[in-house]
Design goal:
heterodimer, A: two-stranded antiparallel ribbon, 1% strand, B: 243 residues, elongated, disordered C terminus
Chain lengths: 318, 243
Protein backbone atom coordinates (compact mmCIF):
# COMPACT_ATOMS: atom_id res chain seq x y z
CA UNK A 1 0.00 0.00 0.00
CA UNK A 2 1.30 3.42 -0.94
CA UNK A 3 1.18 5.78 2.05
CA UNK A 4 1.82 9.46 2.52
CA UNK A 5 5.13 8.65 4.19
CA UNK A 6 6.69 7.90 0.79
CA UNK A 7 5.89 11.44 -0.42
CA UNK A 8 7.06 13.00 2.82
CA UNK A 9 10.39 11.25 2.23
CA UNK A 10 10.42 12.50 -1.38
CA UNK A 11 9.78 16.08 -0.25
CA UNK A 12 12.45 15.68 2.44
CA UNK A 13 14.94 14.64 -0.25
CA UNK A 14 13.99 17.68 -2.37
CA UNK A 15 14.48 19.97 0.64
CA UNK A 16 17.92 18.40 1.28
CA UNK A 17 18.79 19.05 -2.37
CA UNK A 18 17.77 22.69 -1.90
CA UNK A 19 19.82 22.93 1.31
CA UNK A 20 22.89 21.48 -0.41
CA UNK A 21 22.64 23.96 -3.32
CA UNK A 22 22.16 26.92 -0.97
CA UNK A 23 25.16 25.75 1.05
CA UNK A 24 27.17 25.57 -2.17
CA UNK A 25 26.13 29.16 -2.95
CA UNK A 26 27.23 30.20 0.61
CA UNK A 27 23.67 31.09 1.66
CA UNK A 28 24.21 29.41 5.03
CA UNK A 29 21.05 30.60 6.83
CA UNK A 30 18.84 29.53 3.93
CA UNK A 31 20.65 26.17 3.72
CA UNK A 32 20.14 25.55 7.46
CA UNK A 33 16.47 26.54 7.10
CA UNK A 34 15.76 23.93 4.41
CA UNK A 35 17.91 21.29 6.16
CA UNK A 36 15.90 21.57 9.41
CA UNK A 37 12.68 21.40 7.44
CA UNK A 38 14.02 18.32 5.60
CA UNK A 39 14.57 16.66 9.00
CA UNK A 40 10.88 17.14 9.84
CA UNK A 41 9.95 15.26 6.66
CA UNK A 42 12.62 12.54 6.69
CA UNK A 43 12.29 11.89 10.44
CA UNK A 44 8.64 12.80 10.96
CA UNK A 45 7.38 9.22 11.01
CA UNK A 46 10.08 8.17 13.50
CA UNK A 47 9.30 11.18 15.71
CA UNK A 48 5.61 10.32 15.82
CA UNK A 49 6.38 6.62 16.47
CA UNK A 50 8.74 7.62 19.29
CA UNK A 51 6.08 9.77 20.96
CA UNK A 52 3.61 6.90 20.67
CA UNK A 53 6.08 4.65 22.52
CA UNK A 54 6.96 7.22 25.18
CA UNK A 55 10.34 8.26 23.67
CA UNK A 56 10.22 12.04 23.70
CA UNK A 57 13.73 13.22 22.82
CA UNK A 58 13.29 13.12 19.02
CA UNK A 59 10.17 15.29 19.33
CA UNK A 60 12.02 17.65 21.67
CA UNK A 61 14.90 17.88 19.21
CA UNK A 62 12.37 18.80 16.52
CA UNK A 63 10.95 21.40 18.91
CA UNK A 64 14.42 22.99 19.06
CA UNK A 65 14.36 22.83 15.26
CA UNK A 66 11.05 24.75 15.18
CA UNK A 67 12.57 27.48 17.36
CA UNK A 68 15.55 27.59 15.01
CA UNK A 69 13.25 27.88 11.98
CA UNK A 70 11.57 30.87 13.59
CA UNK A 71 14.93 32.48 14.27
CA UNK A 72 16.26 31.72 10.76
CA UNK A 73 13.09 32.79 8.94
CA UNK A 74 13.94 36.48 8.76
CA UNK A 75 17.42 35.70 7.39
CA UNK A 76 16.28 33.06 4.90
CA UNK A 77 14.34 35.82 3.22
CA UNK A 78 12.53 35.36 0.00
CA UNK A 79 14.44 36.58 -3.01
CA UNK A 80 11.45 37.57 -5.10
CA UNK A 81 13.36 38.63 -8.19
CA UNK A 82 14.59 35.12 -8.82
CA UNK A 83 11.08 33.75 -9.19
CA UNK A 84 10.73 35.47 -12.55
CA UNK A 85 13.77 34.07 -14.31
CA UNK A 86 13.71 34.63 -18.05
CA UNK A 87 12.42 31.72 -20.07
CA UNK A 88 14.88 29.83 -22.25
CA UNK A 89 15.04 31.03 -25.81
CA UNK A 90 13.38 28.10 -27.54
CA UNK A 91 9.69 28.81 -28.03
CA UNK A 92 7.61 25.75 -27.29
CA UNK A 93 4.06 25.07 -28.29
CA UNK A 94 1.60 25.96 -25.55
CA UNK A 95 -0.14 22.61 -25.63
CA UNK A 96 2.99 20.67 -24.68
CA UNK A 97 3.53 22.96 -21.68
CA UNK A 98 -0.08 23.10 -20.51
CA UNK A 99 -0.34 19.28 -20.54
CA UNK A 100 2.03 18.60 -17.62
CA UNK A 101 0.73 21.68 -15.75
CA UNK A 102 -2.83 20.40 -15.96
CA UNK A 103 -1.74 16.83 -15.17
CA UNK A 104 -1.26 17.72 -11.47
CA UNK A 105 -4.89 18.61 -10.73
CA UNK A 106 -6.42 16.15 -13.20
CA UNK A 107 -4.42 13.10 -12.07
CA UNK A 108 -5.01 14.09 -8.42
CA UNK A 109 -8.72 14.32 -9.00
CA UNK A 110 -9.00 11.02 -10.87
CA UNK A 111 -6.83 9.07 -8.40
CA UNK A 112 -8.57 10.57 -5.37
CA UNK A 113 -11.98 9.64 -6.73
CA UNK A 114 -10.87 6.18 -7.89
CA UNK A 115 -8.90 5.30 -4.73
CA UNK A 116 -11.64 3.13 -3.15
CA UNK A 117 -11.65 0.89 -6.23
CA UNK A 118 -7.87 0.65 -6.72
CA UNK A 119 -7.17 -2.72 -5.08
CA UNK A 120 -4.62 -5.50 -5.54
CA UNK A 121 -5.50 -8.91 -4.08
CA UNK A 122 -8.08 -7.28 -1.86
CA UNK A 123 -5.66 -4.75 -0.31
CA UNK A 124 -6.02 -1.04 -1.20
CA UNK A 125 -3.21 0.35 -3.35
CA UNK A 126 -3.47 3.88 -1.93
CA UNK A 127 -3.63 4.73 1.76
CA UNK A 128 -7.38 4.88 2.44
CA UNK A 129 -7.03 7.38 5.26
CA UNK A 130 -5.67 10.17 3.06
CA UNK A 131 -6.28 9.13 -0.56
CA UNK A 132 -6.43 12.72 -1.86
CA UNK A 133 -2.97 13.62 -0.53
CA UNK A 134 -1.41 10.40 -1.77
CA UNK A 135 -3.05 11.13 -5.13
CA UNK A 136 -1.53 14.62 -5.13
CA UNK A 137 1.93 13.17 -4.47
CA UNK A 138 1.57 10.64 -7.28
CA UNK A 139 0.25 13.33 -9.62
CA UNK A 140 3.29 15.54 -8.92
CA UNK A 141 5.66 12.69 -9.76
CA UNK A 142 3.72 11.89 -12.95
CA UNK A 143 3.58 15.56 -13.99
CA UNK A 144 7.32 15.94 -13.31
CA UNK A 145 8.08 13.03 -15.64
CA UNK A 146 5.73 14.48 -18.26
CA UNK A 147 7.33 17.93 -17.92
CA UNK A 148 10.82 16.45 -18.35
CA UNK A 149 9.68 14.66 -21.51
CA UNK A 150 8.01 17.78 -22.89
CA UNK A 151 10.97 20.09 -22.25
CA UNK A 152 13.80 17.55 -22.81
CA UNK A 153 15.33 18.77 -19.53
CA UNK A 154 17.36 16.56 -17.17
CA UNK A 155 15.86 15.64 -13.76
CA UNK A 156 18.60 17.72 -12.07
CA UNK A 157 17.59 20.76 -14.14
CA UNK A 158 13.98 20.25 -13.08
CA UNK A 159 14.95 20.10 -9.41
CA UNK A 160 17.03 23.27 -9.85
CA UNK A 161 13.96 25.10 -11.19
CA UNK A 162 11.98 23.81 -8.21
CA UNK A 163 14.69 25.08 -5.87
CA UNK A 164 14.59 28.51 -7.55
CA UNK A 165 10.86 28.77 -6.74
CA UNK A 166 11.35 27.37 -3.23
CA UNK A 167 13.95 30.02 -2.41
CA UNK A 168 11.70 32.70 -3.90
CA UNK A 169 8.88 31.63 -1.60
CA UNK A 170 11.24 31.50 1.40
CA UNK A 171 9.72 31.49 4.88
CA UNK A 172 6.24 32.08 3.44
CA UNK A 173 6.15 28.40 2.47
CA UNK A 174 6.48 27.48 6.16
CA UNK A 175 3.83 29.78 7.60
CA UNK A 176 0.83 27.41 7.26
CA UNK A 177 2.69 24.67 9.20
CA UNK A 178 3.81 27.10 11.89
CA UNK A 179 0.32 28.55 12.28
CA UNK A 180 -1.14 25.04 12.59
CA UNK A 181 1.49 24.34 15.28
CA UNK A 182 0.52 27.54 17.07
CA UNK A 183 -3.08 26.37 16.95
CA UNK A 184 -2.05 23.12 18.67
CA UNK A 185 -0.18 25.09 21.34
CA UNK A 186 -3.18 27.35 21.87
CA UNK A 187 -5.38 24.27 22.18
CA UNK A 188 -3.00 22.57 24.65
CA UNK A 189 -2.65 25.70 26.80
CA UNK A 190 -6.38 26.37 26.95
CA UNK A 191 -6.50 29.59 24.89
CA UNK A 192 -9.65 28.28 23.25
CA UNK A 193 -11.15 27.54 26.67
CA UNK A 194 -10.36 31.07 27.85
CA UNK A 195 -12.03 32.58 24.81
CA UNK A 196 -14.96 30.21 25.14
CA UNK A 197 -15.43 31.27 28.77
CA UNK A 198 -15.24 34.94 27.84
CA UNK A 199 -17.78 34.34 25.08
CA UNK A 200 -19.99 32.33 27.43
CA UNK A 201 -20.02 35.32 29.77
CA UNK A 202 -20.82 37.70 26.92
CA UNK A 203 -23.49 35.76 25.00
CA UNK A 204 -26.58 33.81 26.04
CA UNK A 205 -25.22 30.29 25.33
CA UNK A 206 -28.69 28.75 25.36
CA UNK A 207 -29.54 30.71 22.20
CA UNK A 208 -28.13 28.84 19.22
CA UNK A 209 -28.40 31.87 16.94
CA UNK A 210 -26.45 34.00 19.42
CA UNK A 211 -23.79 31.26 19.54
CA UNK A 212 -23.71 31.16 15.74
CA UNK A 213 -23.31 34.94 15.49
CA UNK A 214 -20.53 34.83 18.10
CA UNK A 215 -18.85 32.01 16.15
CA UNK A 216 -18.98 33.92 12.84
CA UNK A 217 -17.86 37.25 14.26
CA UNK A 218 -15.18 35.46 16.30
CA UNK A 219 -13.83 33.87 13.10
CA UNK A 220 -13.74 37.26 11.37
CA UNK A 221 -12.19 39.19 14.24
CA UNK A 222 -9.64 36.51 15.06
CA UNK A 223 -8.69 36.26 11.37
CA UNK A 224 -8.29 40.03 11.16
CA UNK A 225 -6.03 39.88 14.22
CA UNK A 226 -3.99 36.86 13.12
CA UNK A 227 -4.04 37.63 9.39
CA UNK A 228 -4.90 34.02 8.66
CA UNK A 229 -8.14 32.06 8.88
CA UNK A 230 -6.11 28.87 9.43
CA UNK A 231 -4.87 30.28 12.74
CA UNK A 232 -8.30 31.47 13.81
CA UNK A 233 -10.10 28.25 12.93
CA UNK A 234 -8.76 25.86 15.62
CA UNK A 235 -9.09 28.53 18.32
CA UNK A 236 -12.63 29.63 17.54
CA UNK A 237 -13.67 26.06 16.78
CA UNK A 238 -12.31 24.77 20.11
CA UNK A 239 -13.70 27.79 21.96
CA UNK A 240 -17.16 28.23 20.45
CA UNK A 241 -17.82 25.93 17.48
CA UNK A 242 -17.25 22.52 19.04
CA UNK A 243 -18.45 22.95 22.66
CA UNK A 244 -21.37 25.32 22.07
CA UNK A 245 -22.59 24.68 18.52
CA UNK A 246 -21.71 21.05 17.72
CA UNK A 247 -21.94 19.45 21.18
CA UNK A 248 -24.56 21.63 22.84
CA UNK A 249 -26.83 22.63 19.98
CA UNK A 250 -26.20 19.69 17.63
CA UNK A 251 -24.77 21.69 14.71
CA UNK A 252 -23.71 19.77 11.58
CA UNK A 253 -19.89 19.58 11.88
CA UNK A 254 -19.09 19.49 8.13
CA UNK A 255 -21.31 22.50 7.34
CA UNK A 256 -20.09 24.46 10.33
CA UNK A 257 -16.43 23.75 9.58
CA UNK A 258 -16.65 24.53 5.89
CA UNK A 259 -18.72 27.73 5.99
CA UNK A 260 -17.02 28.77 9.22
CA UNK A 261 -13.65 28.69 7.47
CA UNK A 262 -15.07 30.74 4.58
CA UNK A 263 -16.38 33.26 7.12
CA UNK A 264 -12.80 33.57 8.30
CA UNK A 265 -11.73 34.27 4.71
CA UNK A 266 -14.02 37.32 4.76
CA UNK A 267 -11.75 38.57 7.56
CA UNK A 268 -8.65 37.79 5.47
CA UNK A 269 -9.91 40.21 2.80
CA UNK A 270 -10.15 42.97 5.43
CA UNK A 271 -6.81 42.82 7.22
CA UNK A 272 -3.33 44.23 6.54
CA UNK A 273 -2.06 41.33 8.66
CA UNK A 274 -2.64 39.10 5.62
CA UNK A 275 0.28 40.91 4.03
CA UNK A 276 0.96 38.56 1.16
CA UNK A 277 -2.60 39.01 -0.15
CA UNK A 278 -3.36 42.61 0.75
CA UNK A 279 -0.10 44.57 1.15
CA UNK A 280 2.40 42.87 -1.15
CA UNK A 281 0.18 43.27 -4.25
CA UNK A 282 -0.25 46.96 -3.46
CA UNK A 283 3.55 47.20 -3.67
CA UNK A 284 3.75 44.98 -6.75
CA UNK A 285 1.14 47.07 -8.58
CA UNK A 286 2.70 50.37 -7.42
CA UNK A 287 -0.50 51.61 -5.81
CA UNK A 288 -0.16 55.00 -4.04
CA UNK A 289 -2.29 53.71 -1.13
CA UNK A 290 -0.88 50.66 0.74
CA UNK A 291 -4.46 49.74 1.68
CA UNK A 292 -5.72 50.14 -1.91
CA UNK A 293 -6.38 46.42 -2.36
CA UNK A 294 -8.34 46.24 0.90
CA UNK A 295 -10.36 49.28 -0.20
CA UNK A 296 -11.19 47.48 -3.43
CA UNK A 297 -12.40 44.32 -1.73
CA UNK A 298 -14.02 45.21 1.60
CA UNK A 299 -17.57 45.56 0.21
CA UNK A 300 -17.28 42.05 -1.28
CA UNK A 301 -16.05 40.75 2.07
CA UNK A 302 -18.92 42.25 4.09
CA UNK A 303 -21.57 41.07 1.61
CA UNK A 304 -20.10 37.55 1.75
CA UNK A 305 -20.08 37.66 5.54
CA UNK A 306 -23.82 38.32 5.47
CA UNK A 307 -24.31 35.48 2.96
CA UNK A 308 -22.32 33.09 5.16
CA UNK A 309 -24.32 34.01 8.25
CA UNK A 310 -27.59 33.34 6.43
CA UNK A 311 -26.27 30.06 4.97
CA UNK A 312 -25.14 28.82 8.37
CA UNK A 313 -28.38 29.82 10.06
CA UNK A 314 -30.29 27.90 7.39
CA UNK A 315 -28.06 24.81 7.00
CA UNK A 316 -26.23 24.15 10.25
CA UNK A 317 -29.12 23.06 12.49
CA UNK A 318 -30.82 20.32 10.52
CA UNK B 1 -8.36 28.81 35.56
CA UNK B 2 -5.31 30.38 33.92
CA UNK B 3 -6.02 33.00 31.24
CA UNK B 4 -2.39 34.08 30.80
CA UNK B 5 -1.87 31.91 27.67
CA UNK B 6 -3.94 34.60 25.89
CA UNK B 7 -0.67 36.56 25.94
CA UNK B 8 0.34 34.45 22.93
CA UNK B 9 -2.47 36.05 20.93
CA UNK B 10 -1.17 39.47 21.97
CA UNK B 11 2.33 38.51 20.79
CA UNK B 12 1.01 37.69 17.32
CA UNK B 13 -0.92 40.98 17.15
CA UNK B 14 2.09 43.02 18.28
CA UNK B 15 4.43 41.07 16.02
CA UNK B 16 2.35 41.80 12.95
CA UNK B 17 1.67 45.38 14.00
CA UNK B 18 5.43 46.00 14.34
CA UNK B 19 5.96 44.28 10.95
CA UNK B 20 8.28 41.63 12.40
CA UNK B 21 8.82 38.42 10.45
CA UNK B 22 5.51 36.50 10.70
CA UNK B 23 7.21 33.11 11.13
CA UNK B 24 9.22 34.46 14.07
CA UNK B 25 6.17 36.13 15.66
CA UNK B 26 4.23 32.86 15.44
CA UNK B 27 7.00 30.79 17.05
CA UNK B 28 7.49 33.33 19.86
CA UNK B 29 3.72 33.42 20.44
CA UNK B 30 3.68 29.64 20.88
CA UNK B 31 6.54 29.77 23.40
CA UNK B 32 4.89 32.61 25.36
CA UNK B 33 1.54 30.80 25.55
CA UNK B 34 3.15 27.55 26.67
CA UNK B 35 5.31 29.22 29.34
CA UNK B 36 2.35 31.30 30.54
CA UNK B 37 0.42 28.06 30.97
CA UNK B 38 3.18 26.83 33.28
CA UNK B 39 4.48 24.21 30.86
CA UNK B 40 8.02 22.89 31.42
CA UNK B 41 10.63 23.50 28.71
CA UNK B 42 10.79 19.79 27.99
CA UNK B 43 7.03 19.56 27.52
CA UNK B 44 7.05 22.74 25.40
CA UNK B 45 9.71 21.41 23.01
CA UNK B 46 7.94 18.06 22.71
CA UNK B 47 4.64 19.80 22.01
CA UNK B 48 6.19 22.07 19.35
CA UNK B 49 8.00 19.20 17.66
CA UNK B 50 5.05 16.82 17.70
CA UNK B 51 2.54 19.40 16.43
CA UNK B 52 4.94 20.56 13.74
CA UNK B 53 5.56 17.10 12.25
CA UNK B 54 1.91 16.08 12.54
CA UNK B 55 1.00 19.11 10.38
CA UNK B 56 3.67 18.44 7.77
CA UNK B 57 1.15 17.43 5.10
CA UNK B 58 0.39 21.16 4.73
CA UNK B 59 3.72 21.57 2.91
CA UNK B 60 3.10 18.78 0.41
CA UNK B 61 2.25 21.41 -2.23
CA UNK B 62 6.01 22.03 -2.50
CA UNK B 63 6.17 18.82 -4.58
CA UNK B 64 4.58 20.84 -7.40
CA UNK B 65 7.45 23.35 -7.49
CA UNK B 66 9.86 21.43 -9.75
CA UNK B 67 7.06 20.90 -12.29
CA UNK B 68 5.88 24.52 -12.28
CA UNK B 69 9.44 25.89 -12.22
CA UNK B 70 10.46 23.80 -15.21
CA UNK B 71 7.38 24.75 -17.25
CA UNK B 72 7.75 28.45 -16.41
CA UNK B 73 11.38 28.34 -17.52
CA UNK B 74 10.21 27.01 -20.85
CA UNK B 75 7.72 29.83 -21.33
CA UNK B 76 4.46 28.58 -19.80
CA UNK B 77 3.50 32.09 -18.73
CA UNK B 78 4.41 33.68 -22.04
CA UNK B 79 2.29 31.14 -23.91
CA UNK B 80 -0.64 31.80 -21.58
CA UNK B 81 -0.22 35.57 -22.08
CA UNK B 82 -0.26 35.22 -25.89
CA UNK B 83 -3.38 33.13 -25.64
CA UNK B 84 -5.26 35.64 -23.52
CA UNK B 85 -4.09 38.71 -25.46
CA UNK B 86 -5.47 37.17 -28.64
CA UNK B 87 -8.98 37.30 -27.18
CA UNK B 88 -10.41 40.66 -28.30
CA UNK B 89 -13.72 42.34 -27.55
CA UNK B 90 -13.50 41.81 -23.79
CA UNK B 91 -14.89 44.56 -21.56
CA UNK B 92 -13.35 45.10 -18.13
CA UNK B 93 -16.28 43.31 -16.48
CA UNK B 94 -16.20 40.34 -18.83
CA UNK B 95 -12.44 40.00 -18.57
CA UNK B 96 -12.28 40.19 -14.76
CA UNK B 97 -15.37 38.00 -14.37
CA UNK B 98 -13.70 35.43 -16.61
CA UNK B 99 -10.49 35.63 -14.59
CA UNK B 100 -12.45 35.34 -11.34
CA UNK B 101 -14.27 32.24 -12.54
CA UNK B 102 -11.06 30.70 -13.87
CA UNK B 103 -9.21 31.45 -10.66
CA UNK B 104 -11.99 29.88 -8.62
CA UNK B 105 -12.01 26.78 -10.82
CA UNK B 106 -8.23 26.43 -10.71
CA UNK B 107 -8.27 26.79 -6.93
CA UNK B 108 -11.00 24.17 -6.73
CA UNK B 109 -8.65 21.83 -8.63
CA UNK B 110 -5.84 22.62 -6.21
CA UNK B 111 -3.93 24.78 -8.73
CA UNK B 112 -3.63 27.70 -6.31
CA UNK B 113 -0.06 28.46 -7.39
CA UNK B 114 -0.76 28.71 -11.11
CA UNK B 115 -1.99 32.29 -10.64
CA UNK B 116 -1.19 34.95 -8.09
CA UNK B 117 -0.22 38.57 -7.62
CA UNK B 118 3.35 38.10 -8.82
CA UNK B 119 2.72 35.43 -11.45
CA UNK B 120 -0.43 36.66 -13.17
CA UNK B 121 -1.84 39.88 -11.74
CA UNK B 122 1.16 42.17 -12.21
CA UNK B 123 2.29 41.01 -15.66
CA UNK B 124 -1.09 40.07 -17.06
CA UNK B 125 -4.38 40.81 -15.36
CA UNK B 126 -3.64 44.37 -14.21
CA UNK B 127 -2.35 45.70 -17.57
CA UNK B 128 -5.09 43.90 -19.48
CA UNK B 129 -7.73 45.34 -17.13
CA UNK B 130 -6.32 48.83 -17.64
CA UNK B 131 -6.29 48.32 -21.41
CA UNK B 132 -9.89 47.10 -21.45
CA UNK B 133 -11.03 50.05 -19.29
CA UNK B 134 -9.15 52.61 -21.40
CA UNK B 135 -10.47 51.24 -24.67
CA UNK B 136 -14.09 51.51 -23.51
CA UNK B 137 -14.02 54.56 -21.22
CA UNK B 138 -11.11 56.64 -22.49
CA UNK B 139 -7.77 57.59 -20.98
CA UNK B 140 -7.61 56.96 -17.21
CA UNK B 141 -6.09 59.38 -14.70
CA UNK B 142 -3.62 58.07 -12.10
CA UNK B 143 -6.27 57.54 -9.43
CA UNK B 144 -8.52 55.54 -11.76
CA UNK B 145 -5.57 53.51 -13.00
CA UNK B 146 -4.71 52.59 -9.39
CA UNK B 147 -8.36 51.69 -8.73
CA UNK B 148 -8.45 49.35 -11.73
CA UNK B 149 -5.22 47.67 -10.64
CA UNK B 150 -6.45 47.30 -7.06
CA UNK B 151 -9.66 45.77 -8.39
CA UNK B 152 -7.62 43.25 -10.38
CA UNK B 153 -5.67 42.26 -7.23
CA UNK B 154 -8.89 42.04 -5.19
CA UNK B 155 -10.40 39.81 -7.89
CA UNK B 156 -7.45 37.44 -7.59
CA UNK B 157 -7.88 37.25 -3.79
CA UNK B 158 -11.62 36.60 -3.99
CA UNK B 159 -11.09 33.90 -6.62
CA UNK B 160 -8.36 32.21 -4.62
CA UNK B 161 -10.08 32.25 -1.23
CA UNK B 162 -13.53 31.22 -2.35
CA UNK B 163 -12.39 28.43 -4.63
CA UNK B 164 -9.66 26.83 -2.54
CA UNK B 165 -11.98 25.52 0.15
CA UNK B 166 -13.67 23.27 -2.39
CA UNK B 167 -10.50 21.29 -3.21
CA UNK B 168 -10.22 18.10 -1.16
CA UNK B 169 -6.46 17.62 -0.96
CA UNK B 170 -5.07 20.96 0.22
CA UNK B 171 -5.00 23.33 3.15
CA UNK B 172 -8.39 24.35 4.42
CA UNK B 173 -10.34 21.11 4.05
CA UNK B 174 -7.52 19.09 5.63
CA UNK B 175 -7.28 21.55 8.51
CA UNK B 176 -11.01 21.23 9.16
CA UNK B 177 -10.87 17.44 8.89
CA UNK B 178 -7.79 17.28 11.13
CA UNK B 179 -9.40 19.45 13.79
CA UNK B 180 -12.48 17.25 14.01
CA UNK B 181 -10.37 14.06 13.93
CA UNK B 182 -8.39 15.33 16.93
CA UNK B 183 -11.70 15.67 18.76
CA UNK B 184 -13.04 12.28 17.76
CA UNK B 185 -15.31 13.26 14.85
CA UNK B 186 -14.40 11.52 11.57
CA UNK B 187 -15.43 13.37 8.38
CA UNK B 188 -14.73 12.68 4.71
CA UNK B 189 -12.91 15.58 2.96
CA UNK B 190 -15.52 15.62 0.20
CA UNK B 191 -18.33 16.08 2.75
CA UNK B 192 -16.57 19.24 3.97
CA UNK B 193 -15.62 20.54 0.52
CA UNK B 194 -19.15 20.36 -0.92
CA UNK B 195 -20.48 22.81 1.68
CA UNK B 196 -18.12 25.47 0.38
CA UNK B 197 -19.92 25.57 -2.98
CA UNK B 198 -22.82 27.93 -2.05
CA UNK B 199 -20.41 30.58 -0.75
CA UNK B 200 -18.18 30.12 -3.80
CA UNK B 201 -21.13 30.87 -6.09
CA UNK B 202 -22.19 33.86 -3.97
CA UNK B 203 -18.62 35.22 -4.04
CA UNK B 204 -18.61 35.10 -7.84
CA UNK B 205 -22.01 36.79 -8.17
CA UNK B 206 -21.32 39.55 -5.64
CA UNK B 207 -17.88 40.40 -6.91
CA UNK B 208 -18.92 40.44 -10.59
CA UNK B 209 -21.80 42.78 -9.74
CA UNK B 210 -19.32 45.10 -8.01
CA UNK B 211 -16.95 45.06 -11.00
CA UNK B 212 -19.84 45.82 -13.36
CA UNK B 213 -20.93 48.74 -11.17
CA UNK B 214 -17.37 50.08 -11.12
CA UNK B 215 -17.13 49.90 -14.91
CA UNK B 216 -20.55 51.54 -15.39
CA UNK B 217 -19.57 54.45 -13.14
CA UNK B 218 -16.21 54.80 -14.87
CA UNK B 219 -17.82 54.97 -18.30
CA UNK B 220 -20.52 57.40 -17.13
CA UNK B 221 -17.92 59.70 -15.57
CA UNK B 222 -15.80 59.66 -18.71
CA UNK B 223 -18.81 60.19 -20.95
CA UNK B 224 -19.72 63.26 -18.87
CA UNK B 225 -16.11 64.49 -18.98
CA UNK B 226 -16.03 64.01 -22.73
CA UNK B 227 -19.24 66.04 -23.17
CA UNK B 228 -17.83 68.81 -20.98
CA UNK B 229 -14.52 68.73 -22.84
CA UNK B 230 -16.40 68.86 -26.13
CA UNK B 231 -18.32 71.96 -24.99
CA UNK B 232 -15.04 73.42 -23.68
CA UNK B 233 -13.34 72.89 -27.03
CA UNK B 234 -16.28 74.60 -28.75
CA UNK B 235 -15.99 77.60 -26.36
CA UNK B 236 -12.23 77.71 -26.81
CA UNK B 237 -12.69 77.67 -30.58
CA UNK B 238 -15.00 80.71 -30.51
CA UNK B 239 -12.57 82.48 -28.15
CA UNK B 240 -9.75 81.85 -30.65
CA UNK B 241 -11.91 83.26 -33.41
CA UNK B 242 -12.49 86.41 -31.37
CA UNK B 243 -8.78 86.91 -30.74
Amino acid sequence: MLTLEAFHALLGAFLLFAAARDLGARRRATAAFWAILAAAFLGGGAIQAGVAHGVRWPAQAMGVGVLALGALASRARSRGGDSTAAPVAARMSGLRLFGPALAIPLVTLVLALAAPWLRWHGAPLLDTRQPALVALGLACVAAFVAALRATHATPAAGLREGHRLLDALGWAVLLPMLLATLGSVFAATGVGDSIARLVAVLIPVESRLACLAAFALGMVLFTVVMGNAFAAFPVIMAGIGLPLLVLRHGAHPAVLGSIGMLTGYCGTLLTPMAANFNIVPAVLLELPDPYGVIRAQWPTALALLAVNLLLMAALVFR
Amino acid sequence: MNDWPLLGVAVVVVGFALKRNPALAVVVAGVVSALAAGMSVGDLLALLGTSFVSNRALLLMALTLPVIGLLERHGLRERARDGITALRGLTLTRFLAGYLGLRQLLSMLGLTNVAGHAQTVRPLVAPMSEAAAERDAGALDDGERAQVRALAAATDNVGLFFGEDVFVALGAVLLIQGFYAQHGIELQPLAIALWALPTALAAFAIHVLRIARFERRLRRRHAADARRAHDGVADGGSADADA
